Amino acid sequence: MYDVVIIGAGVSGCAAARELSRYNVSACVVERADDVCEGTSKANSAIIHAGYDAKEGSLMAKLNVEGNQMMTKLSEDLDIPFKRIGSFVVCTDEKERGGLEMLLERGKKNGVPDLRIVEQDELRKMEPNISDDAVAALYAPTAGIVCPFELTIALAENAVENGVEFKLETTVENIEKTENGYLVKTDRGDIETKCVVNAAGVYADRFHNMVSEKKMTIIPRKGEYYLLDKSAGQHVSHTIFAQPTKMGKGVLVTPTVHGNLLVGPTALDIENKEGVNTTYDGLQEVGQKSGRTVKNLPLRDVITSFAGLRAHEEHGDFIIEEVKDAPGFFDCAGMASPGLSASPAVGKMIADMLRDKLNLSEKANFKATRKGIVKASTLSIEERNELIKKDPKYGNIICRCEMVSEGEIVDAIHRPIPARSLDAIKRRTRAGMGRCQAGFCSPRVMEILSREVADINMENVTKAGGKSRFIVGTNKDRW
Amino acid sequence: METKHLTCIGCPMGCSITVEMEGSEILSVTGNTCKRGDIYARKEVTNPTRIVTSTVRVTGSDLTNMVSCKTEHDIPKDKIFDCVKALKGVTVKAPIKIGDVLVENVAGTGVNIIATKNA
Amino acid sequence: MENYNLVIIGGGPAGLAAAAAAKEAGEDSILILERDNQLGGILNQCIHNGFGLHTFNEELTGPEYANRFIEKVKDLNIEYRLHTMVMDISEQKVVTAMNRNDGMFQIQAKAIILAMGCRERPRGALNIPGYRPAGIYSAGTAQRLVNIEGFMPGREVVILGSGDIGLIMARRMTLEGAKVKVVAELMPYSGGLKRNIVQCLDDFGIPLKLSHTVVDIEGKERVEGVTIAEVDNHGKPIPGTEEHYSCDTLLLSVGLIPENELSKDAGVEMNPITRGPKVNESLETNIDGVFACGNVLHVHDLVDFVSQEATTAGKNAVKYIHNQENKNAKVVPVEAKDGVRYTVPVTIRPECMDDLLTVRFRVGGVYKNHFISVYLNDERIQHRPRQIMAPGEMEQVILQKKQLLAKYDLQKITICLEEK
Q: Is the torsion defined by CA of A6, A10, A14, A16 positive or negative?
């Protein structure tokens, strides 16, 4: 019997797990995918919003601003990249300037520090590639960028280090109320628990509706993106939003923490909760809209495109609460944007609720810090040679676009949440994330994975678990 | 009279060749820019042949699991699949030198399979 | 820091030929740095035949062609390091490299030859919509899996792009027992050699659909099918022309990009058309003593031409090392015009060129019955008819030193296509 079962190993679930692991608690996270960060958390804008967007008094506003403030310390504790690069909301029509004032006021009320409106001269100095049409912008210096994979993985690993269990490739099929809590029925057996945290992203409504009479609807809202080569990564140095106008919402242009440029998203409500396909129209739209705020975008340097689903709840706010007619069942639902930004605060809020519900006491030996995979490419020659002397695998480059060594890949395979697929290795090490998109390194990474893990061989290596195998047989086997 | 249009595969130029035939008799070959094209065209309309390249498994090589190979000469086009099927399950032992015969008289064509890589 | 007169980045066909030529020109201090576990580069996985007709007057497979140069490099006792990744090249010609045994090390070179080759364009560069399951490979990745590792990446295959690797893989997969259902090509013409269409597609009855592209990829975990559609003149899919193919594999052969990240970081100026360095007649970049050859300079159709070009680079690097370059020579730009997309080189110093200089280029579309013309200033000096020219094949003109020198007021050399 667990104290807490968290459904979903996205950034909310993993943040909750990590915060919860401060207490003396038996907890596990159940995730249907083969890795953490496989749903909404992996395909988004990778930005930490300042917090002026959400409606004053909303949970989104509160947790966004708090989450933003927590991010500096959290990124240091968890050894993950986070850069407070600041953001602009760009107004390209003098008549719409009032919209910036409104955002400024809202931001102030939400408690966003240092917001101000910059006029075009200053704006152009700060951001030379801003559109010639730009008249002014709302500047939010506290906005930042983060790697959503590394954040989620780091939270999960730190939770494991502090005693939380992760059950991957485990799909929750039903949830039944029991005398002392809940019976979580999965395809890998039943799990008894006192409390459940429903952090299931676009599926949060399904699990909520299993236990509550007050039904919930989560609408997957698709967003499509372009990721550009690092050669385009310096095109802008802040996150550039288009001011929402009657012409629509526009797309953002932002550097990523790894030096690429990200452009998107679209916003289309769809029915299919698995609909993470990109579309011809969506990609066209991103291309067309991207020119509104930033000029001369080198779209020919696109290295990949992707789509993510935001878990939009019909009332438009986060729902983080104990379900009224299901005591011990906590929703963490509607985690659309700014869900990533808010995640540190979301995790804390959920852990606080569970602490109070279960009377949890603080752990004496909570380990707040976690060491990430060494980023060999950031080391000096001396440091690197030190490392290679200890382990020659760090001298063997496997992914030549991102200069990832064998040592880093082997580390990823043997960490607290072990990488078991090429995507899992990619998210941890960036091998395959570069301009050739794994064309060169994938056979080599497959070899390493099959060498390092007893029950993995070349023929059953997967891209992302399940049936996503790369190899279907050997030469001439069907002759 | 029958006219056949071919693209020469003798070299990467890919000349467009026209062959005029009367029954099985070749009346003329035009469009080729070298002797090789003439030979190719005459063969292609009567007895088309191809060099077949493939791989077989090799054990004991620290370079590779597969050693590349080819038919020593061209074989009839309709024997291509028989040839590759005959290579199924063939395993050779390192060391292998370029030119080593790996399979003799493959699929009854009278042509040997030879290694194209050291392993 | 170690010192070598000549460091060659890459031990593929370009690097090997450059090294051999440099050694034969009298240079003894040469080092080849190769990231793979063997010399030969991508030729090792190109097991098909058709290489070497120009160079050796016989038809070799890729590994055989590579081996001729590998043997030569070994016979000439040229030093090389395998498993060695070059991490950085500085403008001062300091090469930083790394491998398991030596760790990270630096070499001061007097001259450098860039011979890193090219890489394949990934799916993302084409913005093909759909899911992102397993089963989407660049043709070269599939080629490695099949030819080097002996594994089948799929059973039922659709290929996008009719570049040579795509065509070659259509045949390879077929011979290994897979069913190749169709090859779709965005352009109205194939990007590959004609002979490959005949012997890789026609021989096996594989249809080639020109002016078609993939508009959807299905399958969440593994590819389950793709939809292709016809495109209009702007490459835009035409609604109503969609055709669905069930398959487990999509191979992409949609172009090659010279691998110039190291060059750019070193400050080498790039030609935006070729995505390779801008070079002069000696194949020297804007950085003195840094030369380029092979697919890192521009994507070639035939390896024979890579070897020829690399030989030139190797010889010129030796001239540079021994201060035999004329620094004050007049520089004449070469202009690519009217159907000629680019030229290599982009500048020529007539005083520095050999008696004969090959200028290579590609055309921008399919041209039938056109002339390749060369102008010195406004004077036409060459006018050569060509029955057919296509972007998939490289073209060339040969310039004579004495003719260029004779034109004392030479300001510009123009290479263009003309109808008459």
A: negative
- Tally Cβ neighbours within 10 Å of residue C412: 12
Nearest CA in chain A to C141: A439
C-alpha to C-alpha distance for C291 and A478, rounded to whole angstroms: 48
For residues B63 and B33, membership in a common domain is answered with no
Chain C residues within an 8 Å CB radius of A475: 146, 150-152, 176-177
Contact A388 C119 (CB under 8 A): no
Residues A439 and A392 in one domain: yes
Neighbours of C24 (CB within 10 A): 14
Which residue's structure tokens are 């990240």?
C261
Determine, yes or no, domain membership for A67: no
Tell me what pLDDT residue C327 has.
77
3-state secondary structure of C211: coil
Q: Does B42 touch chain C (CB under 8 A)?
A: no
Same domain flag for A391 and A248: no
Listed range (A125-139, C113-127, C373-387) with the worst mean pLDDT: C113-127
Instruction: Report CB contact under 8 Å: B66, A476.
Output: no
B84 at interface of C, judged by CB pairs closer than 8 A: yes
Structure tokens at C246: 């069930």
Cβ C45 vs Cβ C147: under 8 Å: yes
Whole domain around residue B73: which residue ranges?
53-115
Question: Is the CB of A378 inside 8 Å of chain B's CB atoms?
Answer: no
Q: How close, in Å, is residue C57 to chain B by CA atoms?
A: 10
Q: What is the pTM of this model?
A: 0.94
Residue A273 host element (H or E): none
For chain C, domains (ranges, CATH) are: 1-120+256-325 (3.50.50.60), 122-254 (3.50.50.60), 329-420 (no CATH)
From first CA to last CA, the distance across chain A in angstroms is 53
| Residue whose pair of structure tokens reads 């030093």 in the numeric block | C79
Q: Supply C186's token pair.
A: 């965005």
Please report which helix (H) or strand (E) contains residue A210, including its range: helix A204-211
Residue A378 sits at the chain C interface (C-beta within 8 Å): no
User: Rounded CA gap, C280 and C273, in Å?
Assistant: 16
Which domain, by its residues, includes A324?
A: 2-41+148-217+315-358
In the three-class reduction of DSSP (H, G, I as helix; E, B as strand; rest coil), residue C7 is classed as: strand
Distance (Å, whole) CA C206 – CA C223: 20
Residue A388 at interface with chain C, using a CB cutoff of 8 Å:
yes
C-alpha atoms less than 13 angstroms from C-alpha of C156 in its C-beta half-sphere: 9
- Shared domain check, A383 and A349: no
pLDDT category of residue C122 using cuts at 50, 70 and 90:
confident
Residues A133 and A165 in one domain: no
**Searching chain C, which residue's CA lies closest to the CA of residue A302?**
C125
Q: Which residues of A are catalytic?
A: 49
Run of H or E residues at C236: none
Contact A470 C134 (CB under 8 A): yes
pLDDT for A159-190, tens place per residue?
999 999 999 999 999 999 999 999 999 999 99
If you measure CA to CA, which chain A residue comes closest to B85? A479
Out of A276, A440, A469, closest to residue C131 by CB: A276
Please check whether residue A167 lies inside any domain of the structure: yes
Q: Are C190 and C161 in contact (CB under 8 A)?
A: no
Rounded to 10°, the helix A11-20/A148-161 angle is: 30
Tell me, yes or no, whether A193 lies in a domain: yes
What beta strand segments (E) does chain B contain?
2-7, 16-22, 25-30, 49-50, 53-59, 66-71, 75-76, 91-93, 101-103, 113-115
Q: Summarize pLDDT for A214-229 with one digit per residue, the tens.
A: 999 999 999 999 999 9
ipTM confidence: 0.93
Neighbours of chain B (3+ CB pairs under 8 A): A, C
Q: Are A61 and A54 in contact (CB under 8 A)?
A: yes
B11 confidence band (pLDDT: 50, 70, 90): confident
